[in-house]
Amino acid sequence: MSLTLFRATWLTLAIGCVVAAEPIVKFEGSKVTYHGTTQGPVEHFQNIKFAHDTSGERRFSPPELYTPVEGSEIDATAPGSACPQSKAGIPPFFDETPDISEDCLNLRIARPAGTTAEDNLPVVIWLHGGGVVKGTAYDPHFDPDNLITLSTSLQKPIIYVALNYRLTIFGFARLPILNSQKSLNVGMRDQRAGFQWVKDNIKAFGGDPKRVTVFGLSSGGTFISLHPMAYGGERGVPFTQAWAMSGPPGTALNITSDATEIHTLAVAKKLECGGRDGEILKCLREVPMEKLTETAMEYSVNNHPPAGLFTFIPSVDGDFIPDRQSVLSKTGKFVKGIPMVFGWAQDDGATNAGLAPTFQKEDDMKAPIKGFAHALTDADYEELFSHYPASDFEEEVESYESRRGESDPVAPVHYFRVSRILRDILFTCSSVQFGYEMSRQSKALDVNYPGVRLYDLNQSMLTPMLKAAGMPYIGVCHGSDTNYIFNGLFPEGRVTEADQRLSESIAGSFINFAATGTPIFIQNGDLIPWPESFPSVDERSMSGPSELNIQLIGGPLGTGFCSLARKYDDATNFASREGSMQIPLMDGIEVGEMESLGFRSRQRELEREKLLERCTYISTLSEKLGV
Length: 627
Ligand SMILES: *[C@@H]1O[C@H](CO)[C@@H](O)[C@H](O)[C@H]1NC(C)=O
Ligand SMILES: *[C@@H]1O[C@H](CO)[C@@H](O)[C@H](O)[C@H]1NC(C)=O
Description:
It contains 22 helices and 17 strands. The chain is α/β, with parallel strands linked by helices and 627 residues long.
């Protein structure tokens, strides 16, 4: 007995020694050394500071890159501080963040154990979302270990980076004096500084600075989409590929308005910071961090209940963001040649709609849309609603009725309409529009450009939770992608076998994208390429694509692509009908696949969504939406 115990202890110790071999990365020039930790098959380096403390005079100022003193020994074994935010968690998306500080511009790196500086692995950089009020690189909802392990087993190892950036008023305060000092949008400037750090330093960790994929979801995705437009594209970007989930550039965030200035002044007033511009700024810089966080969040929650999301947001500053994103993308003021993937969740707008039973009549649909679109007139609403007639959503009602439990609420047709309208306005159409411009303009410069891909996710690990919360009508909600892209990471629940399989396919596609610029979906051991979304450029169409491929992922119809085409009724006008008359043949896709039942039902479902027609209309609203 005691011998067994002794042997067990000895074994543990012996294994402990092997595992605990502390990974070290030493920079050749500066002799700076980072000391990390090993956790099973993954090595971690945390709290790597990339820019200076942002307190005092540096509060509201652009980040200043941080370089450790030559020869420093740096402890990278524990998480760094989160940027100032409310400490409470937002389950099931964010944990609590007890440790906040203005010295928060740090990043983490994870890599397969045993990686060396010679390995030159593709790099992925995660930007967390959270409505510009919440999040940190260290949140357990973004634990990279499952993703790294999958990359190793696919023999396509990657290096993972996640970084912090300033949130709420700390990242997006606006005053005229800050504008004249080129100090607006500092939260986005932090992100870019972090990307630059990765480009300059990742080689020492075994990464390839020429293959860097940035990815994010929700506000994280929107930042990813906006970065190629930074400085109107004139200064390039410190990354090479991008993957934006439910985060196109134009999430109706009203970036043209001076709203953030109004909000900044309102918070200043609450803190009794008055006087001229410079005096207000000086005073706001002297307010203790906790007090400023609390006051800004209290104000934000009042401004945009219940969580205060999207109050301090990016705004046009004539410098980092020179103009509205839809203008920048149409006029080619962005960095071209970036392979991109944009995705949305099938019911991405549902959580913005509200409770289904409140939508008894058509007019009830206006209230949740108004929260994003102050400038729409009654005539605009009438036209918008006519593109989403109730008759188009009878199938959604029937489908919900067929699975509705006895105690589940009834959901009127207008609920399904407004949920879809919000999805298209906030997530889908801007993805289609920017994706089309990126593809069209990149191909004009380089015929070998790998292309843009769009996906629609129709499966969610959150479904049982939504049902338990009395909202089974929500469907596949915003944020559902995170659990899959991190390869079956679900701190609140159990991952079913079907969800684990889908996770490996989605995370596997992402890993392949990081390595090659093309996502390849692995299904039952077969490698299935996603077709390019915009295989052709139609010179007749100035307003958007006339042909569109979408990868449908998960859900009852299975994974595979759909192909939408718009038909002309004369030389200049489009017939609104969308059909599958001329599906282009795509590389790597067998003709048999297009005749299969799965393909036909996916095709039918996507055609019912009338994306080409509806997005063409929605793009005419860009100016009124401020995007
Ligand atoms: C932008 O926001 C401001 C302030 O909230 C609002 O008054 C304005 O109508 C908004 N603009 C658009 C185009 O929605
Ligand atoms: C998404 O899934 C729902 C059921 O969960 C189904 O009714 C619908 O047809 C699917 N839609 C698409 C586009 O796959």
